[in-house]
Amino acid sequence: xxxxxxxxxxxxxxxxxxxxxxxxxxxxxxxxxxxxxxxxxxxxxxxxxxxxxxxxxxxxxxxxxxxxxxxxxxxxxxxxxxxxxxxxxxxxxxxxxxxxxxxxxxxxxxxxxxxxxxxxxxxxxxxxxxxxxxxxxxxxxxxxxxxxxxxxxxxxxxxxxxxxxxxxxxxxxxxxxxxxxxxxxxxxxxxxxxxxx
Length: 197
Known about the structure:
Layout: E1 13-14, H1 17-22, H2 24-39, E2 43-50, H3 51-61, E3 66-77, E4 89-96, E5 102-103, H4 125-132, E6 157-160, E7 180-184
Parallel strand pairs: 3-6
Antiparallel strand pairs: 1-3, 2-7, 3-4, 3-5, 6-7
């Protein structure tokens, strides 16, 4: 960019559903994320049940389960950069919709939500100050798919996997029922208790 801009750069531009499915680069980011989640065994794909069946079986057995949905977020990072700039890329994430968790009776579920307190803006300031002292240094790192590296404990949770998330695998052959669900095993982003585990 050949001129100064009076606003923040490196903004993540929201990507709509049509662009997500038609743009080959965005579609590649989508396939990569879903592939990673299936590969990490975030949910148990050995048992697939419909949303209604999960609730019905839990009521029949007298057990308590949670039912949730997955949704996707796609953004283009560095969208203000030139088209050929390598820093301009699509980022796609699959997230558990934590604000609409149901129980087996399809009522709002009760979750612990103990580990979701976000850090305040003041939290990193002592670390930054320490790093500014003569001879001192601080570093920051991020783990690849950090949340899904932890097992999800607590109440048994089932997630509805949208059609776009099913692999094109002849063994699975796509979703076998309407509103297919699998049991969530790993602590997926968005689940109210993921931060705890």
